[in-house]
Structures are given as C-alpha cells and as structure tokens.
C-alpha cells in the first residue's frame, strides 16, 4: 500500500484555499490547511507533512517568513510559494529563502499539479520516504 502523502496548504483567502484543497484531494493527497504562516508552522510542528504550498502574503507570518521555520520543523521539506502580487524581487527572495518553486496566482491547475507531484518526489528522496 502506498502511504498517503500529506500537503500543508496555507492561504488566508478561504475560497481560494478551498479550491486548491479540492484540487489536491483529487490527486489523492491528504490536505492540512492553515490560514496564516504561523498556523502553518504550528501544523508542521505537530504533524508529518511531505510538502507545503504557501501564499506569500498572509497575516502574522508571510509565506516567505514561514519557509525557514518549516525547514526547522522538517528538514528538506519542499515549499512551493504562490502569490497574486508576484514580482521578480519576491520570486528571488522566495528562492533565496529555500522555496522549491514559485508560482503566480491565479495558478494554472495543470502547472500546480505538476509542481506538487515534483515536490513530493523530491521530498521523498531528501526525507528518505
């Protein structure tokens, strides 16, 4: 039996988060949801997750600020960030913070699926299963 892969999804836009969660569930993934970066970090500290999808702009703790904290909780955790206000500077900052991939909102569902699956494959190798 293939173990269930768990994705941490953090976005303060409830409707968008619900839509993305549905897409992830269609891939057979378990989804752990958070509304803020701090909530995402707390979820990661108490649950095993295999990848994270983070909005860059959230209250309390941005996706950019959450990446290093998530890496402390799960070494090698692939973190995909996405934003509706993405700039070249933000993309560079996200990559420097350790983002696995950086996507623009509205995100193309096919691209999102592809990046999530790529992140899970990468995480499986770096986390040993």
UniProtKB/TrEMBL annotation:
Alphabetical list of PROSITE patterns matching this protein: RESPONSE_REGULATORY
The entry's keywords: Phosphoprotein
Modification 4-aspartylphosphate occurs at: 55
Pfam families per UniProt: Response_reg (PF00072)
Residues of the Response regulatory domain: 6-120
Keyword Disulfide bond among record annotations: no
InterPro entries per record: Bact_response_regulator, CheY-like_superfamily, Sig_transdc_resp-reg_receiver
SUPFAM superfamilies referenced in this protein's UniProt entry, alphabetically: CheY-like (SSF52172)
One Gene Ontology biological process: phosphorelay signal transduction system
Protein name per its UniProtKB record: Chemotaxis protein CheY
Annotated organism of origin: Engelhardtia mirabilis
């Amino acid at each position: 039996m293939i173990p269930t892969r768990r994705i941490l999804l953090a976005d303060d836009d409830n409707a968008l988060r619900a839509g993305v969660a549905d897409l992830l569930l269609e891939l057979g993934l378990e989804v752990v949801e958070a509304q803020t970066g701090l909530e995402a970090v707390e979820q990661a500290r108490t649950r095993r997750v295999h990848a994270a999808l983070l909005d860059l702009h959230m209250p309390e703790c941005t996706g950019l600020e959450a990446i290093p904290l998530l890496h402390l909780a799960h070494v090698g955790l692939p973190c995909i960030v996405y934003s509706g206000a993405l700039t070249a500077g933000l993309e560079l900052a996200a990559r420097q913070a350790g983002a696995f991939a950086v996507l623009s909102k509205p995100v193309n569902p096919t691209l999102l699926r592809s990046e999530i699956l790529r992140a899970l494959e990468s995480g499986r190798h770096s986390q040993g299963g």
